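Hey, can you fold this?
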Amino acid sequence: MKRIAAILLAFTCSLQATAQSSKKISTYLLLQVGKTLYDRTITNNNSGPSLGLKAFYNNKTALKPFIEIDGSIFGGTKELHMTTTGKVIESKDGVVCVFAGVTFLPVKNVYIEMAAGPAFFNGSSYLAIKPGAGVYFSKKHKLFAAVSLTNIFQRDDISNEQFGYLNFTLGIKLF
């Protein structure tokens, strides 16, 4: 968890320096709640809170690139799951994702987005995708709410089952 906090702090500092020099970056604090939809040990990773940062590059088009980093903590029963050969299937206590993507604003305060990047948990990294949609609550885009699906392609020696969770997000503009 200390590593996640250090990464988020460094990310925020670098974005603030960039935003102050160019005024083209909007950065948001993300407060999220995740609900697992599918996983091989779904009872172990049922739901949990998440904290993140998201930075948009402001341009004059309807397509805005962004980067996002978030860390999620998953709770559940934490039962022992094993394969038929006796190998332990680890639960996911924490998941860190780093996404790069693009947001499309079909109308002024409504957006859809698609992102991809690595997801890190249990000492491994996996490819993840994150489609989503959201709405801004003001003309200056100071606050937004969004829903998205994080799908992690969990390919390993135990199985090729995917891990997916629904995110409910509140974004608060920092600068």
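Oh, and this one too while you're at it.
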Amino acid sequence: MIVAAVGIWYLVQGVMVLGTDFSVIVAEELEEFTDDIIDLVKSIVGGVYIVLGVLTLIIAFLIYSGSKGGRTILMIILVISILFNVYAIVLGGYTGIIELVLAVVCVVMLYQPAVKAYFG
């Protein structure tokens, strides 16, 4: 359920980015280029969030169905998340502590006997 909620949140963020107008104050000579660049960045960021949302929902379905592949993909993502959050904390970004704790809790949960039996 947590993975599905994250996937839905990514989809919502993608739609919000695509539906938001960004304004940047620039000189008149750069105005037409700036609008094109802002639209491009907005499309890329919104598209990335939507793709992440769809992939996360696919992983959630695989996990829900008890797929070993889904569990493996989730473990890879969690390990990457843990590494990035540790790196962010070392650089002074203390907001990554919450994400780090959640990722570690998820890893611990995946190694509980009942969970291992579910994916067995």
